[in-house]
Please model this.
Amino acid sequence: MKTRKDVKQLVKKWRVAPRIEMHERTLTAVLKAHAETQKTKIASEQPNIGRIIMKSKITKLAFASVAIIIGIFLLFGNGQETLYAQVVKAFAQARTIHVVINEYRDRHWFKDEEIWYDRKEGIHEEERFEDQTQIRIDNKQYEWRYTVGDKLVAKVSSFRDPDEWAKDLYEWLRFNPERNPSGDKIIDGVSCDMYALLIPDSDEKVSVWVNKNNRVLEFENVEQRGGQEIRSVATIEYDIEIDKSLFLPNFDSNVEIVGPRELIEDQFPLDTAIFKRENLGFVFAVHEFDFGSGFKYIVCSNRLTKQTRDEISNGHPWTYYGGFYLAGRYDKFGLYLDTSDEPILLARMKHDGISIAWYILVPGGSKAKQNTGCDIEVRVNMANQLEEKLKAEGLPIIDKFRLNIAPGESKEKSLSMREIANQVYSLGEKYDPIVHSFGLAKIVTEPDGNKVLCLKKPGIEMSEKEFLKDIENRVEYYQNLN
Amino acid sequence: MIEDKLLKWKFKRGSREALQRIYEKYEGYLLTLATALLNDVNTAEDVVHDVFVSFATSAEKLRLEGSLKGYLATCLVNRVRNEMRVRKRRPCVLEDVNLPSSDLNEPEFSAVSKEGSQKLSLAMAQLPYEQREVIMLHLQGGMMFTQIAKLQNVSVNTIRSRHRYGLEKLRSLLNSEVIE
Model:
């Protein structure tokens, strides 16, 4: 018998967690609406790519530096061309730009990022994350991304104009920096004015030095991180000679250059799929369906049809066109159907209009245990350009259907959870370096220096051992409900 | 709350990162609130989507004082009320109702078990809307009765009564055989 206090606790603890698809779709829409409001010029960027760029120290620092310059104009503008416009013009007139960012932490200076930009050739960027070095080259035709030490290099068509990388600088336009003549200094023999910004309610301070030609030569960012002061200093050189080979994909001879989408399509081909359904511009497929002890294991994919891709793709490999998820089957009272399975999402990978998901199915109803197949619902939702296209055609933007399949004769086998965890991790190891932010896994360095591959879940990173334990706990939880 | 203050300040100054953090911080709370008020996860998702998209464009109007969580909850409640008005004008069949499904209530995401969540959702659906709103805003959102009274445009005593009657009915429903 529940007391009033029990009921209060129950309501307080009740949480409905957002589905991944909802989270991403809404976040995309929110950031898009925000960008439009701010009238920024990052139109060709998708929010996820925006996040990648935002991770870059150069961008972060440069945001602040230009914001300061804008502020200078706001404070001292005289009706002539704004200083902001002059700075942008100065950026635009540069033939080449070379940026080096050093960070002072743990009593040492570390080179964190270096960028070479040539207006004719493109951009070459090297950035360090913990002990990894990531390289991005864009020669205006193709983009290559490579993490030093990996076996694969991702190659995609160039989707972002290298000339416009400075456009990100426009985002932070509302700061009001102060001119600080006491910090003026000479950089490489050139006298520079200092402007400073102290961000209220935070420990972040930004200083920028601008020469008489409106070129930012140096900026410095100081912030408190983990109880210590972290100082980043970026130095910028203009119109220097840059070795053109930097813009060519000259990687180690033992690495393979691959197209991530093509590689994923090869790994999960439609022609050998156990089940296929084409509807509303997507093809849903089941690639693997096996039995374990008291559970089932299923690997599914969802991808744009070739025709849809040709019609709507903008060539941006990180565009999200929609996704799918599996759900148990319920009656109108929200109770399980006797035959329904309960899907547990293990991992998900998305890239360029393809989404792959790994699930374990646990019998959710009393009759589901006797099922020789599976009984679940598939829900596919469309987003962005595909959603707009379907709406314009008066078609639905959600596809729901029941999936009731049996394993193929040669496919039936008994898998252990350890094998499943291992399979997911192996794929993560293979794909993460090339699909980047939407990968299955992430390499982290533990305190003892060992590198561990961790599965990325919302807000969680798990080692293979923790992942296995997590699967076992979740399966046990559902088995005990029945 | 200090973080919220900083987030609001940064958001007002155009920070996309701050907006993203606000979204990630409060989407779960708003989705739970909307699901409880509407008894329909799909519509709840749409409402949360609309609230945040509208919020994203309202940096200029956002006031720095006051609780961010309370502000978002108020925006959501207003949207939900609009949705309820639309619903009243069209026939609703029980099959249309989408309760939180299994994937929304996996153990690591939910402090209440799947079974408990479904029961609670069904019981909540049987409360009068005003009582549901008071219970959720007070217990989930931590809003004071005076704040809710202002939102519902009634006296604090009325809010107290709605809270008391609502809880009692909820207790009775959760203990009854009907939804066991």
User: Anything to note?
Assistant: Residues 57-76 of chain A form the longest helix (20 residues). DSSP finds ten helices and 25 strands in chain A. Chain A touches chain B through 62 residues (CB under 8 Å).
